[in-house]
Amino acid sequence: MIPLEDSAADIIGKAQRGLQISDSELAERSNLTAEQIRAARDGAFDEATVLALAPVLGLHAESLLKLSRSEWTPEQLEPIAGLAQFNTTYGDMTVNAYLVWDPKTREAAAFDTGADSGEMLKRAALEDLSFTMILLTHAHPDHIEDLTRLRADSGAPVYVPENEPVPDAKIIGDDEQFELGSLTIEARLTSGHSAGGLTYVVRGLARPVAIVGDSMFAGSMGGGAVSYPDALRNNLEEILTLPDDTIVCPGHGPLTTVGKEKRENPFFAASFAP
C-alpha cells in the first residue's frame, strides 16, 4: 500500500500558508499560543489543539482528528481492467503516473511519466497496447522527469495544459475532449496547485476514473502555491461533483474515491456534512 502523502501536520501547514495567516494571528483566533501553533506544524499536538485549529483554518475537525490519530485509511479498491498505477522514486518522495487503455481495442494513454517510465512501458508491452497519447496533468519536474524516454519509446504525441509549456507538446485547455477506443477523456481545469493543472475524467471503464495530478490527494490536496482559493474551488466544482464511485488517481499517495474524499478529506468534508 502506498502511504498517504500528507499528515495532519502537513495539512495544518498547507491551510495556514494558503490562508496567509501568521502564527500570531492564528494563535489569537484559536486561543492557542504561538508555540502551540509551531508545535502543531511539527506534528506535536493533542485533540484540543486540533479542535481549536480546524475551524479557523476551514478544515473538517473530525477528518483532521482521524489523520492525527493515524486512523484515516484509504479505501481498498479492486483493480479494474484498463487502469494501472506506477509509483516511482523522485528524490526523497515518490510520484505516480498512470496508464489507461481500452480493453477491447488496446489503445492506450499515458498520464504523466513519474521519475521512470520503464514499468509503464513494460506493462504496455505485456498488455499489447498501442500508445495514442501522453496527457500531462501539469509540468512540475517530478511528473515529467522521464518524458523524453516515454515520448521516444511510445511514439505518442504529448499534450500539456495551458500556462505550463513543455517543448514540442500540444497545448490544451479546459473542456478538451479525447477518444480512446470506446473510452472518452475530458480535461477539466483544476489549477491552483499549478498554473494550468488539469484533471482528466475517463469514462467507459468499469468505473469512472479521474486522474487529478496534484490537485487532490487521498485525505489532502496539493499546496495552493499559485492560488489557494482556486485550488479549493476547482477541487469542489470539478472533481467532487463527479459520481461517488469515481476512482481518484492522484499524483502522490494511494488511490481514493470521490465519495471517500467528500466524507473524510479535511479540506472538503465540511461542504458535504449533513
Helix content: 25-40%
Mean pLDDT: 97
Q: What is the name of the CATH superfamily of the largest domain?
A: Ribonuclease Z/Hydroxyacylglutathione hydrolase-like
Spatially, the strands of the biggest sheet line up as 1-2-3-4-5-6
The CATH architecture classification of the largest domain is 4-Layer Sandwich
Structural shape = elongated
Q: Structural class from helices and strands?
A: alpha/beta
Number of strands: 14
What is the domain tally?
A: 2
Question: How are helices and strands ordered from N to C?
Answer: HHHHHEEEHEHHEEEEEEEEHEEH
Terminus-to-terminus distance: 31 Å
Largest sheet features: 6 strands, mixed
Cα gyration radius (Å): 19 Å
Strand-residue proportion = 15-25%
Instruction: Count up the helices.
Output: 10
Oligomeric status: single chain
